[in-house]
Amino acid sequence: MQITEIFFDCDNTLVLSEELAFEACADLANEILEANGIPDRYTGDQLIKDFVGQNFRGMMVSLQAKYKFEIEKDALEAYVKKEEDKVIAKLEAKAKPCVGANEVLDKLFASKKYGLAVVSSSALRRVQASIKKVDQDKYFDADKVFSAATSLPTPTTKPDPAIYLHALEKVGKTAAETITVEDSKSGALSAIRAGIPVIAYVGSYDGEMREEMGQRLMDLGAKVLMRDWSEFEKCLEYLENAPADIPQSSL
């Protein structure tokens, strides 16, 4: 492969943000369930289990389908904005980089060999707040941070491939010139459906979940498994030297 562009998911791939974000989401999700007379309640951990990789809008679509209720369009937009503000406040206070991510980004940026972009489901303000908090914004031009919730004419969420197709168009690359790093099923599927080879990163998962998620992502069609950012260089080298059909590998 002639790789000239590297995409990165943000949440729990570059920035340890999912736990913080889902804490805020759980409070708001429970408020919505209560307002609709539904007794069930979520913790942040339960939301992560059910909706990791999706944005808040996508979660609300799933909750409405699960519990058979409907949120009016204006009310949904108000909730989306409220959730965004709550999450950003938590991120600006507590977000940390994924272990080893900054060191990898520093080397890639210094090499000037690849274009670098962020492709996320999360709202653009949230992504920008995350990467700024952990000093990663210097690696990405402002017009190369893409959000499925904000950057598209019609907001969506991964696993819809729309945000990856949009990113390819904006950076002027084909899927064959590009790879991405993803940590969730919805994120990996979004990229795979856009034809982009996926490095499955599982370093943000704990214990047995790390291996379990790694297997799930490889079963979905990710091309190489990365358990830690220290393995990125050999994962990239493998993809660059692989044949066009890129067999799967766990290095």
Automatic annotation (TrEMBL):
MF term (GO), any: metal ion binding
Keyword set, alphabetical order: Carbohydrate metabolism, Magnesium, Metal-binding
Any one Pfam family match given in the protein's UniProt record, by short name: HAD_2
InterPro entries per the UniProt record, alphabetical: Beta-PGM-like, HAD-like_sf, HAD-SF_hydro_IA, HAD_2, HAD_sf, PGP-like_dom2
UniProt KW Magnesium keyword: yes
Keyword field contains Magnesium: yes
Cofactor(s) the record lists: Mg(2+)
PANTHER family noted in UniProt: 6-PHOSPHOGLUCONATE PHOSPHATASE (PTHR46193), HEXITOL PHOSPHATASE B (PTHR46193:SF18)
Protein known as: HAD superfamily hydrolase
Species for this entry: Penicillium argentinense
Species classification: Eukaryota, Fungi, Dikarya, Ascomycota, Pezizomycotina
